[in-house]
Amino acid sequence: MGNLLNIILFVIFSGGFLSLTAIAKEDSEFNQGVMAMSQNDYETAIVHFENDLKHTVSYEAYYNLGLSFFENGNLTAALWAMEYAYYLNPSSKDAKFNAAQILQYLNPDKTWEDPFSNWTKFTVRIGALFWLMFSILLSVSLGLLFFMVNTSKHLNHKKQLLKALALAGLLLVFSVVAGKHASNHFEYDHFVLPKTNEVSTFVSPDGLTLDEKLILGNRYLILERKENWLKIEFETEHPLWVNTNDVFYY
Known about the structure:
The chain is α+β, with helices and mostly antiparallel strands.
């Protein structure tokens, strides 16, 4: 019995140690990337941040990856990584400023435009979890208010309860819409950025090639995805397809 207990404890603590080692390794990739940046070794920093992102997608890793790409001279990748950081945290003034500056280096004739609305920034900043909890609380409140309205015998009291019921109902609808919007922000890919100015475009996946070329620094709206193909809005009512290997997307 004692030997069995020792084996169980060994397995538990060994598993815990391995988990902590894995976490430390993931953290060390990011830390090593930061260290490489401090030594102006941006090529090594890129490798570490990309390895870190294989385990955990984070604003900090994409932000530093964008800076590293920029310092390493890869402007198209820098713009994508910085916009990806902004996508993860659309309230970030630093990511927004840096994306605009990188675009100026990449294409001086273009002015950076914010891809996300104030509504998106508001809902995402508060978070889908908050909206979910708020919706649950409002649903419970609605149930209680509805019960109180039906059991109240005083007319003035019932009027006040009806007003509160209406307000709670409106807030519930608002919170559900806001929560859905915040959740959808991270569930779908939004935009494409070309890696080069020679990206091949197609009528359909593996279909006929087109003469249209994507412009460096331009951001194209994703309309549909099929495996490793993306349908994008090239011009108004003029979609085309690109291969995911030829573009950056988020």
